[in-house]
């Protein structure tokens, strides 16, 4: 019972620490990295609040240092998924009945633990496990995850305030219920923040969750799970299991209490989930919510009026930060013929200053790609481009998996705007550029819109206002996050709600109210104070 209406004002974004040489935070992060590397972690699943060790242990290696072992995770089976569902359903009645201010406090405390006591450990596990440099880990694992938690508490309290009007003699109210059943969160390798947001946004709304992270993100996922438990998350509200995709699908998508999936990952996997859920619909007690943010082939369209230095920086950062492994990464660029040579020359010179190596050397801008599968796929595309007369490698192209999965930042120039690397999502440090006739901006916009099935992020760079206006209108459906004179990456919670349409997902905008509505099922309650006692309308009594 609550004796008041409590308020959660709009928070400020968590300040991003800079890790400059000599700074306190750099020292603290380096200490955390050394400590993490010194011990081999033994990583259990967490089911019903219990640490579950299956004994089926798999090593975790830093992608940039294949011979080092960070620890071992205990892989699960179908039986563990079933136990996770049972634990979730057992926790459900108490959790959804818990007053909102008590639920909110857990997530706000977790945000504060991330911001203070565990900041360098969530960043450290992300750096080592996912091969992110210090700055990329800070904006993801610390700041974005903290923002997701704090902003979602604010947004949900705003939703709870939304109530219908009442005519005289009655009161109407809206109850923002959790969904009936359990929610499945399936999360990708590339953002610790997404791994944390997908289960917590649903749980915050009163739902109980089974969370399956990518195997390559388990090291930081378990760190966050421990933080949630320290913040007071009751047993069974979120259950963390380490199984492969088909295993989670076989159990969850066949369960009558399956209430929804919160997914981020590739389009192919999401399409498969959607088809399975569709085919199984008669098995479920309710129509499940299907929320998925998926792949991208994100564009940078440069107008003949653009500022060359701004273009070069947007491409260098947009394409190569975190080795291009952001769903938002610039992977195809359209340059106008009047500026193309200057942009290419400066861009190649800038990219060739980027140092590549481990995350512990803070001089490295580029680290390793996530795993061998990704390395082999990227190398295949790069090798094919090297042999193809229709493509030219302007810089990069060297790959080595001897010590870690290193792929040089690579720029491919093509004359065919539909060349394979202009169309398909590669998910790595590969940018393809195409030069169009500077006076054919309209045609270039058509190309941008029609080249890939995705519509996640995109940017236009121009000084000419009418070109910006034209691109904003013509490319309305080509990107869910559209940037003017900036790179297409780096969305901030509360500032640029994130998500795309077409083959890029359901566009339910992570870190916004739109997303939270998907985890709520409203009940309308009307109470009449003076109930009618005669069925006859007044006009019948003439
Ligand atoms: N739109 C966005 O907001 C966004 C954000 C991050 C990543 N992504 C996309 O994610 C992809 C990269 O991440 P990834 O490599 O981890 O993606 P992925 O699709 O390979 O894996 C995502 C998750 O799905 C699981 N999975 C795989 N096969 C499955 C199956 N058959 N059934 C159920 N689950 C299954 C994986 O184990 C993992 O947990 C890219 O396509 C990228 O664009 C999109
Ligand atoms: N929100 C992140 C991308 C998340 C996907 O990988 C960005 O805007 O760069």
UniProtKB/TrEMBL annotation:
InterPro entries: Ald_DH/histidinol_DH, Ald_DH_C, Ald_DH_CS_CYS, Ald_DH_CS_GLU, Ald_DH_N, Aldehyde_DH_dom, P5CDH/ALDH4A1, Proline_metab_enzyme. The keyword Magnesium does not apply. Pfam families: Aldedh (PF00171). GO terms for molecular function: L-glutamate gamma-semialdehyde dehydrogenase activity; proline dehydrogenase activity. Pathway: Amino-acid degradation; L-proline degradation into L-glutamate; L-glutamate from L-proline: step 2/2. PROSITE patterns: ALDEHYDE_DEHYDR_CYS (PS00070), ALDEHYDE_DEHYDR_GLU (PS00687). Gene3D superfamilies: Aldehyde Dehydrogenase, Chain A, domain 1, Aldehyde Dehydrogenase, Chain A, domain 2. It catalyses: L-glutamate 5-semialdehyde + NAD(+) + H2O = L-glutamate + NADH + 2 H(+). Belongs to the aldehyde dehydrogenase family. This is L-glutamate gamma-semialdehyde dehydrogenase. The gene is pruA.
């Amino acid at each position: 019972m609550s004796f008041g209406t409590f308020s959660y004002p709009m928070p400020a974004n968590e300040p991003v620490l800079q890790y400059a040489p000599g700074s306190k935070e750099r020292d603290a992060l380096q200490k955390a990295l050394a400590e993490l590397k010194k011990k081999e972690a033994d990583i259990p699943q967490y089911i019903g609040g219990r640490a579950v060790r299956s004994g089926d242990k798999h090593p975790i290696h830093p992608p940039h240092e294949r011979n080092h072992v960070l620890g071992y995770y205990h892989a699960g089976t179908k039986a563990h998924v079933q136990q996770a569902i049972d634990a979730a359903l057992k926790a459900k009645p108490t959790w959804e009945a818990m007053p909102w201010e008590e639920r909110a406090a857990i997530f706000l405390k977790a945000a504060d633990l991330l911001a203070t006591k565990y900041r360098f450990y969530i960043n450290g596990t992300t750096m080592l496990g996912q091969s992110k440099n210090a700055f990329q880990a800070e904006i993801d694992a610390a700041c974005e995850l903290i923002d997701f938690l704090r902003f979602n508490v604010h947004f949900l309290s705003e939703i709870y305030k939304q109530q219908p009007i009442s005519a005289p003699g009655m009161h109407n109210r809206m109850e923002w219920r959790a969904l009936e059943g359990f929610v499945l969160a399936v999360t990708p390798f590339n953002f610790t923040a997404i791994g944390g947001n997908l289960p917590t946004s649903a749980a915050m709304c009163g739902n109980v969750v089974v969370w399956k992270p990518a195997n390559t993100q388990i090291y930081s996922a378990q760190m966050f799970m421990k933080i949630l438990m320290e913040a007071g998350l009751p047993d069974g509200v979120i259950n963390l299991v380490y199984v492969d995709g088909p295993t989670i699908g076989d159990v969850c998508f066949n369960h009558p209490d399956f209430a929804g999936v919160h997914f981020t990952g590739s389009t192919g996997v999401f399409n498969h989930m959607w088809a399975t859920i569709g085919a199984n619909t008669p098995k479920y007690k309710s129509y499940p919510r299907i929320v998925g943010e998926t792949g991208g082939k994100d564009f940078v369209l440069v107008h003949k009026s653009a500022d060359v230095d701004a273009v070069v920086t947007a491409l260098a950062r947009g394409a190569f930060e975190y080795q291009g492994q952001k769903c938002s990464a610039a992977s195809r660029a359209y340059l106008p013929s009047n500026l193309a040579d200057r942009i290419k020359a400066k861009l190649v010179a800038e990219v060739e200053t980027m140092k590549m190596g481990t995350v512990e050397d803070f001089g490295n801008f580029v680290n390793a790609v996530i795993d061998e599968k990704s390395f082999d796929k990227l190398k295949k595309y790069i090798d094919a481009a090297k042999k193809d007369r229709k493509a030219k490698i302007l810089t990069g192209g060297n790959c080595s998996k001897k010590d870690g999965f290193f792929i040089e930042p690579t720029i491919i120039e093509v004359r065919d705007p539909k060349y394979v690397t202009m169309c398909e999502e590669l998910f790595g440090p590969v940018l393809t550029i195409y030069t169009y006739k500077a006076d054919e901006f309209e045609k270039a916009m058509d190309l941008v819109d029609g080249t890939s099935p995705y519509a996640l992020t995109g940017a236009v760079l121009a000084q000419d206002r009418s070109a910006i206006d034209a691109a904003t209108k013509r490319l309305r459906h080509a990107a869910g996050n559209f940037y003017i004179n900036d790179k297409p990456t780096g969305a901030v919670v509360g500032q640029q709600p994130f998500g795309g349409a077409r083959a890029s997902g359901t566009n339910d905008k992570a870190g916004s109210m739109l997303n939270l509505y998907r985890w709520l099922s409203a009940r309308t309650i009307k109470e009449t104070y003076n109930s009618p006692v005669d069925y006859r309308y007044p006009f019948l009594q003439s």
